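#struct-help
A.M.: can someone run this one for me? Single chain, 489 residues.
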Amino acid sequence: MFEQTFKNIDDVLWKEAGCSSELDYTEQTSWMLFLKYLDDLEAARAEDEELRGNDYEFIIDAEHRWSSWAAPKNADGSFDHDSALTGDDLITYVDEELFPYLKGFKQRASSADTIEYKIGEIFGEIKNKFQSGYSLRDALELMDKLQFKSQKEKHELSHLYETKIKNMGNAGRNGGEYYTPRPLIRAMIKVASPTIGETIYDGACGSAGFLCESYDHLRYGSDGKEAKLSVDQLRSLQTSTFYGKEKKSLAYVIAIMNMILHGIDTPNILHTNTLADNLADVQEKDRYDIILANPPFGGKERKEIQQNFPIKTGETAFLFLQHFIKYLKAGGRAAVVIKNTFLSNSDNASKSLRKELLESCNLHTVLDCPGGTFLGAGVKTVVLFFEKGAATRKTWYYQLDPGRSLGKTNPLNDDDLKEFIELQKDQQESEKSWVVDFKDVDQESFDLSVKNPNAPEEAPLRSPEEILAEMVELDKETADVLGVVRGML
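D.P.: on it. Structure tokens below:
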């Protein structure tokens, strides 16, 4: 229903001089989509209050409401072109009036977990990149056709928005920062097996893929059928289940919008540098039942940030892993994507971190992902599945091999991970899976690298003599065939 509208908005953005990449398209679509969503939400709330005989107090004042400046209507509901701003007037209004007004909500909000605060955060971080008021007017009129009135409409929009995030991930060298393949996320969630009432946290949430998929898992289950939940359970899902932190402005805005489209009206996402938390200050109330994450690889954190961690290292992903272990409740479960070199690096920080993980947590599963799992990332990854509170005794490894090269046109799919999920339940051994006993791990290096003892042996390479003999035989056959052909001429 809405797919063509999204395509038409992309066409407008493609022609707009201020927007040059898929990242710009998603950013500009996001702020317009957010304001349209907010307008529909407020209209629905005002209608409900009116039916109850109450007045509704609007968040956005009348002058700055979507229905006033973006899509003014005539009495019959048709678009009022006479009063709609366009050209330079529209750009001036958006840049000099609308955005400063919306940014001011951060100061006016009563607390950080209100929708008012989120509005202020978003419009303090994002910029209008439209240079032509005529292009912006076209985009706004198209955006106004999208509706958020039913769960079905929100669901369709969330799928379209996910596609935009995926395209954005594919477009950049650091695609993995914005987009973790959804089949991999769903497999991680199935193994972690969250239940309603547990808290779920991603301290490097990017576009909030793990949190959105976790919401879908709890709300609809793996078969896609809506679960029968009580009012208290639904409220718990809305307000006190999903938590995230994100450092980058664009990813933060996209995470908020993505969660809203999945049905969470005021997401608990903080715009902050997660690694600035001093682990010595973490208390029990700060901890979570489940952690699901794909932290950024290879970044270098400043010395003062490294002081927050017992194991000092410049590798961002290793700092995140320490953060996650500390923020997990006793008995809590985690699934974390990390570079496969973490398993075998010989530097002191890597060895210390592996020792810490094995001694404070039960690293029960390691999923070895093939190259190409993350488009544009160029590194091989593993997923670590662990529970906090008991030391590791045995680790089950699974070597994911979809039997084809993964790429943009041939990405990972849910079927590729079916066997992993099935075998993981009982940690069965197979040609692709095996168990390593902690007693057999080197107690000095704690090397955990992937060495599959059950892989079928490949046929040994033939000797040069065998190859030459076969070439002579083939030449002889060719000469015989040519002799027959000549005889027929």
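A.M.: thanks! The first strand starts at residue 200 and ends at 202.
D.P.: also worth noting: The CA atoms of residues 189 and 214 lie 7 Å apart.
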